[in-house]
Amino acid sequence: MITLALSKGRIFDDSLPLLRAAGVEVLDDPEKSRKLILATSRPDLRVVMVRASDVPTYVQHGGADLGVAGLDVLLEHAAAEGGDGLYRPLDLRIARCRMSVAAREDFDYAAAVRQGARIRVATKYTHCARQHFAAKGVHVDLIKLYGSMELAPLTGLADAIVDLVSTGSTLKANQLLEVERIMDISARLVVNPAALKLNREAMRGLIDAFEAAVGGSGA
Ligand code: ATP
Ligand code: MG
């Protein structure tokens, strides 16, 4: 049995067409069912529904053989663990967005950087943020948050945030401006190396099918 870890929402929704192209139907809808283990049309493949940030943990420790997670989640996880030993064979080109710095419209980020001021930055992505600002020589005090980063500059908790942006409409709705792009983000297939070794033929077949699905999707 091969176990694939997915998370509810955009990762699951965007993975479905790839799975379908790989000849796999998921036999339950996680939005309607309370089941956490979903059968598929392939008797040797099941899907487990976990929180987005838990996907790398499941795959790393063998709770799942492979999984789909955003590059943001993978980089933060790997930095927190000091490496995670996961294979990342494939950019699935889904759940695409970018990691950016955003600030209030009335905060002059460029001037603060020029003056070498200490900038208070709120983010869920403390490892990526620390690395980004260190590489640029920008002085920051990082404030760790777990959600709704947009609120931090509006309440005076921080001067700026590091968050994911896709259309920019959430930033706009909260009078925030994207002032710096850090990196492009997309979801990746991650694989447990031991699982690949133990069950090479079936795992390889599935990874190849994913690869063909990505190539064939025109994405
Ligand atoms: P959690 O359940 O831990 O809160 P999450 O909020 O990160 O997880 P989702 O909102 O479903 O879960 O996001 C899953 C992934 O989708 C992110 O890790 C990211 O890679 C990607 N993504 C794409 N566009 C966006 C966006 N606009 N905002 C947030 N994530 C995005
Ligand atoms: Mg979310």
Order of helices and strands: EHEEHEHEEHEHEHEHEEHH
Strand order of the largest sheet: 2-3-1-4-11-5
Ligand catalogue = adenosine-5'-triphosphate, magnesium ion
Q: Which parts are unreliable, with pLDDT below 50 for 5 consecutive residues or more?
A: none
CATH topology of the largest domain: D-Maltodextrin-Binding Protein, domain 2
Inertia-based shape:
elongated
> Helical proportion?
25-40%
Structural class category: alpha/beta
Number of domains: 2
**What is the CATH superfamily label of the largest domain?**
Periplasmic binding protein-like II
For the termini, the CA-CA separation is 30 Å
How large is the count of helical segments? 9
Q: Main sheet? A: 6 strands, mixed
- Radius of gyration (CA) equals 19 Å
Highest CATH level, the class of the largest domain = Alpha Beta
CATH architecture of the largest domain: 3-Layer(aba) Sandwich
